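Technical annex, item 7. During the second reporting period the consortium partners agreed on a shared format for inverse folding records so that results from different sites could be compared directly. Each record opens with the tokenized structure and is followed by the designed sequence. A conforming record, contributed by the partner at site C, is shown below for reference.
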């Protein structure tokens, strides 16, 4: 590994790095920082936990001048990720005199206006709230010299591509720009072709989505048995734990169950107010809560180095979401464990995820001697159901603590995702006058 002091960073920036206990750069930092410092654009394919935030943050801190107006803009898909990025920049830049403001939906506009009026050099923002400020005139982009799009694929999934294009069209053409994404779908490549100038591409993590350094395992069980096995697995854990659920209803139920079992747990899900979400994350980050129960919307905005275990209470509905979830453990080269509960109805989805995992993964059914008997739904349906009748199969029932597909039990993860796209709760997506969804 190359040491940060050889990457062309100033003493003030290096002091911030040393204060955080770092000396050697991660591979993506070693590769990206010199290129951004040279003034060339960058496209980086990097998964969660690779060190990409420091790669673009340190480069920006090095080039931006204090008390010269807003010169750096970072766009992120969720408020959690935006706050996390801001905190990292503040730590690394505490000796530089550079100030940061975070703007996102769900927080009072007055708080953000006060921060902006005091003067900042870097703005970290979600697209919708940034457009609100642009309309008000509280943020202007004329002096922007550095732009970062972080988690670009998530912004694409949440429907922000047009918003991003609108924002970039307002920014000066003479800027250094970087785009980071865990995946590179066609829309992201088109965006980079249109707005980045001859970018240097780094695919350092394209083949590193295996979750290396994480002890991965899975257990195929009935949905109603998940509570029991959750307790069995978390009892011996001494560090912190994150439990990921596919729906907000499931998140509430699991958190309530853990409270009943006398565990110190907090929850984050889309319908919570911003104050409650920040309160929950504050308790978890400070160690006052041992367990965080969260939906996928939080999976890219959680950076707690002491997470020992990640439990996928439900199989994620996308393969990439699995790696973002388990990436919450084994941070910065540490070791961690991830366990996935696979209900009988989710075996097919889990098989798709397993194909992407490139390291050994433990089958806990074999290890623990647990027999499985996955029912055939056709055998459980009555003739009237199979041939167009109206009778209901037990296989489609839901419930608060079990079932296969009920909104308060197993749930359909896609239901939450579609609701999230249409609301301002998690993505801060806004409409704005004068333009439709161009």
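Designed sequence (site C submission):
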């Amino acid at each position: 590994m190359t040491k940060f002091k050889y990457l062309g960073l100033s003493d003030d920036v290096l002091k911030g790095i040393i204060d955080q206990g770092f000396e050697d750069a991660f591979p993506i930092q070693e590769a990206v920082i010199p290129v951004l410092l040279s003034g060339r654009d960058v496209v980086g394919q990097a998964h969660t936990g690779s060190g990409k935030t420091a790669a673009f943050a340190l480069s920006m801190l090095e080039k931006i001048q204090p008390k010269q107006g807003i010169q750096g803009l970072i766009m992120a898909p969720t408020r959690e990720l935006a706050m996390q990025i801001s905190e990292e920049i503040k730590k690394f830049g505490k000796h530089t005199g550079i100030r940061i403001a975070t703007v996102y939906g769900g927080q009072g506009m007055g708080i953000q206006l006060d921060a902006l009026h005091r003067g900042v050099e870097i703005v970290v923002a979600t697209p919708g709230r940034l457009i609100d400020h642009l309309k008000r005139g509280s943020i202007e982009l004329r002096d922007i010299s550095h732009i970062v799009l972080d988690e670009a694929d998530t912004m694409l999934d949440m429907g922000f591509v047009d918003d991003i294009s609108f924002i970039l069209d307002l920014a000066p053409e003479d800027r250094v720009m970087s785009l980071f994404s865990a995946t590179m779908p066609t829309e992201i490549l088109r965006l980079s072709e249109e707005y980045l100038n001859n970018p240097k591409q780094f695919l350092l993590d394209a083949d590193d989505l295996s979750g290396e350094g994480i002890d991965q395992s899975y257990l195929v069980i009935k949905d109603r048995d998940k509570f029991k096995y959750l307790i069995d697995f978390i009892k011996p854990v001494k560090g912190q734990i994150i439990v990921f659920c596919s729906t907000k209803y499931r998140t509430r139920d699991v958190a309530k169950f853990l409270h009943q079992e006398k565990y110190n747990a907090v929850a984050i899900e889309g319908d919570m107010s911003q104050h409650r979400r920040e309160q929950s994350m504050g308790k978890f980050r400070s160690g006052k809560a041992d367990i965080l129960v969260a939906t996928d919307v939080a999976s890219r905005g959680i950076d707690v180095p002491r997470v020992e275990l990640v439990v996928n209470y439900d199989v994620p509905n996308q393969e990439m979401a699995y790696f973002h979830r388990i990436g919450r453990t084994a941070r910065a080269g540490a070791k961690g464990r991830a366990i996935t509960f696979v209900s009988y109805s989710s075996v097919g989805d889990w098989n798709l995820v397993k194909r992407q995992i490139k390291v050994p993964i433990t089958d806990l059914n074999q290890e623990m001697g647990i027999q499985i008997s996955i029912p055939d739904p056709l055998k459980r349906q009555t003739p009237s159901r199979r041939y167009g009748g109206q009778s209901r199969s037990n296989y489609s029932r839901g419930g608060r603590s079990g079932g296969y597909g009920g909104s308060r039990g197993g749930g359909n993860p896609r239901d939450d995702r579609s609701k999230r796209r249409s609301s301002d709760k998690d993505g801060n997506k806004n409409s704005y006058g004068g333009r439709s969804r161009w």
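Residues 28 and 52 are 6 Å apart (CA to CA). Residues 79-92 form the longest helix (14 residues). All partners now use this format for quarterly exchanges.
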